[in-house]
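Thread amino acids onto this structure.
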């Protein structure tokens, strides 16, 4: 049996097809169509089992009611789940509240290749697009920003000035707050261990660490590593040199942070008995009471959707670049040095 069309409804109701279109499209009242005519059309539609074509309906309204989500980093592997899942939850919840569906675009980053311009062209199927990922492909994004598609990036990126709207986390202030907390406990030799990555999130965390150390009148020491050289002996050497607290960086893989925890376990160190430990970010073992700060990922995802829908609607009053506060979590892995 063929799918019923508006022409079938028009014949059954004894009206014209344009009249059916106006009534089903919700504009009957504005056109002054009689209530009795509207009733006949709706009854005929129900009798025939008519279901509107969502694509045609959206095209008639001038938009698709679709928000795109493009990730430059693969988001579904297990090791990424902690970092990206809360963002996706916030995006989904707020999209539903705003009356939009989500369309996810798969980047070539899944295979480890650079995203291609052709992939970014496809995001124009949506009314606007959210972008998520630790590293931003500058050339491709520059091309997209030259179009009229509303976009919002989740994460701070200043490569394009005010051309790129974003919702980011204030890692600088949060990093400094962690250092002040450690200094308040009495720590003077604080070591920062981070990955050798120039992602802007890593740059901001280090800036926050150095700012906090300067504020407390302490000398900042930063160690860059992929985790392979974080051995038990190296931890013992740091402690023998007077280091009483170590700060790690949380990333999507937590490579250096996990390596440090492994080395501490092998060395027989306990936090905070032998060393105090804090992290700049939200690693996967936050439930263990780790000292540091919490990233409002879910709230950032929702805020990004709200900003994007405002841009789609033509609202130019909303701040295009926003940083959200990360709350300090004192935790249980930092205490006064012994």
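Threaded sequence (338 positions):
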């Amino acid at each position: 049996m063929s799918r019923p069309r508006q022409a079938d409804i028009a014949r059954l109701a004894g009206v014209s097809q344009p009249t059916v279109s106006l009534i089903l499209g919700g504009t009957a009242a504005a056109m002054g169509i009689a209530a009795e005519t509207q009733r006949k059309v709706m009854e005929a539609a129900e009798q025939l089992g008519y279901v509107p074509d969502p694509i045609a309906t959206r095209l008639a309204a001038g938009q698709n009611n679709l928000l795109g989500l493009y990730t430059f980093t693969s988001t579904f592997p297990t090791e990424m789940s902690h970092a990206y899942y809360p963002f996706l939850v916030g995006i989904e919840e707020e999209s539903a509240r705003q009356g939009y569906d989500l369309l996810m675009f798969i980047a070539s980053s899944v295979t480890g290749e650079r995203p291609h311009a052709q992939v970014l062209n496809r995001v124009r199927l949506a009314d606007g697009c959210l972008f998520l990922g630790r590293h931003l492909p500058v050339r491709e994004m520059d091309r997209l920003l030259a179009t009229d598609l509303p976009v919002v990036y989740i994460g701070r990126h200043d490569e394009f000035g005010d051309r790129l709207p974003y919702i980011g986390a204030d890692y600088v202030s949060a990093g400094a707050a962690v250092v002040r907390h450690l200094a308040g406990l009495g720590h003077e030799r604080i070591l920062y261990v981070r990955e050798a990555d120039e992602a802007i999130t890593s740059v901001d965390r280090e800036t926050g660490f150095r700012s906090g150390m300067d504020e407390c009148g302490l000398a900042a020491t930063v160690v860059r590593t992929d985790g392979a050289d974080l051995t038990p002996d190296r931890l013992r050497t740091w402690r023998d040199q007077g280091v009483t607290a170590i700060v790690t960086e949380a990333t999507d893989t937590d490579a250096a942070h996990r390596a440090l925890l492994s080395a501490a376990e092998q060395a027989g160190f306990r936090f905070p008995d032998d060393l105090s430990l804090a992290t700049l970010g939200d690693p996967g073992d936050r439930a263990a009471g780790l000292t540091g700060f919490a990233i409002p990922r879910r709230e950032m995802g929702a805020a990004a959707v709200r900003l994007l829908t405002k841009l789609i609607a033509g609202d130019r009053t909303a701040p295009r670049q926003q940083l959200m506060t990360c709350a300090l979590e004192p935790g249980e892995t930092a205490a006064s040095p012994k």
